[in-house]
Specification:
The structure is a single chain. By secondary structure, the protein is mostly helical. The protein has one domain. Helix content is 75%, strand content 0%. The protein is built from 3 helices and no strands. The relative contact order is 0.05.
Length: 84
């Protein structure tokens, strides 16, 4: 039996998936979910390790105070710019 190779563009694939009935989308999601979750967990672990490394010379209280101050500054600048 000869092997066929189907070549499609990314946008074509997305369009095809968007047209699938919900039952097929659910099957696809169940198939992809373990890989997606594993990838998210790896990224979170790397971000957490980087954060610990960046703040190793500071107490948890100092880091939290900096984070809260940064959040307040961002909210203030968004409010001043008319954003939410």
């Amino acid at each position: 039996m000869s092997e066929r190779v189907l070549e499609i563009q990314w946008e074509q694939l997305l369009e095809m998936v968007s047209r699938l009935p919900i039952q097929h989308k659910e099957i696809l999601w169940r198939k992809l979910r373990p890989d997606v979750e594993a990838s998210i967990l790896r990224k979170f672990d790397r971000a957490l390790a980087a954060s610990w490394q960046a703040h190793q010379d500071h107490t948890e209280e100092e880091v939290m105070a900096d984070a809260l101050q940064t959040i307040a500054e961002i909210r203030s600048s968004r409010k001043a710019a008319g954003g939410s």
